Amino acid sequence: MENLLVEISPDRWAFLLDALTVFSIRLCAAAAILVIGWWIARRASVSLSRLLARQSRMDATLRPIVCDIGLWGIRIVAIVGALSQLGIQTASIIAVLGAAGLAIGLALQGTMQNIAAGIMLLVLRPFKVGDYIEGGAGSVAGTVFEVNLFTTRLTKPDGICEYVPNSALWSNSIRNFSRNPMRRLDLEVEISIGDDVDRALEVLRTLAAADPRALRDPAPQVMVIRFDDSTAVLNIRVWSKTDMFWTMRWELARQVRQTLTDAQCSLPLRTRELHIVSSATAETATDTAAGQAGSSAIRKPDQGP
Questions:
Q1: Buried b (16+ CB within 10 A) or exposed e, 184-205
Q2: Contact indicator for 177, 229 with CB cutoff of 8 Å
Q3: What is the CATH number of domain 182-262?
Q4: What's the pLDDT tens digit per position in 120-148?
Q5: 130 vs 99, higher pLDDT
Q6: From 3.40.50.2300, 2.30.30.60, 2.160.20.10, 1.20.1730.10, which CATH number describes the 127-176 domain?
Q7: CB-side exposure of 170: number of CA atoms within 13 Å?
Q8: pTM above 0.85, yes or no
Q9: Which portions of the sequence form the region Disordered (predicted)?
């Protein structure tokens, strides 16, 4: 080995030294490009987020998506620049990455579905940040906090944070409780079937119309919807603004019982009639049928031609 090193000419040593020097410089330059690119991408994402937050016309739903696109766009450019510094042909790298991306996409179909669903949610906009929604076939409900490419972040009514895959929302119906400016309240009330139904309808209609949160158009309605056992079920339908819906519901539910009591409508007690057939009667009917059959059997031999 020592003889081999001795036989290497000084020119070859100089060539190897120059090659190592050039490669080290390119390697340091590639590492510097990556580090600077990552730093610039991070700062650009933060600055873009602050800029979009000051724009009143920019929807909060699109803000994280735009920031993520800018972040990874700069990082991809930095990676391509670093590979170019190392002397690697970026065209072949892009082709290899495309083939690898296709294979990864086939292997991660569920993840790709989340990305596609996130794009469709952002384009069609069935909800936005701040809306209260229900989706996932009724298994998901909460206030939208953030929409990303993969998941949607919800805050449940009890304050718990929930991350829902975008495909779970997009593949099922979505109920948006905050989209429309008005919402109808349906409140069922039960009274005894022996009470004055017309009087109950009148006082409940007056109560609904007197509520300041109830809209005049459409006007409040009170009607009988069904009779159950010994109970008459009334339905109060009142329209209100969406942000006042729950306040009006709780207040009306509290006042309904006292209003019906003042109108002399009692709390219904469900009753049911049961008719029991006596066993003695059944036995008498059985004995009578047996006696008639025996008489017919005794008279049968006396019958002549």
A1: ebebebebbeebebeebbebbb
A2: no
A3: 3.30.70.100
A4: 887 888 888 889 999 877 788 999 988 88
A5: 130
A6: 2.30.30.60
A7: 22
A8: no
A9: 283-305
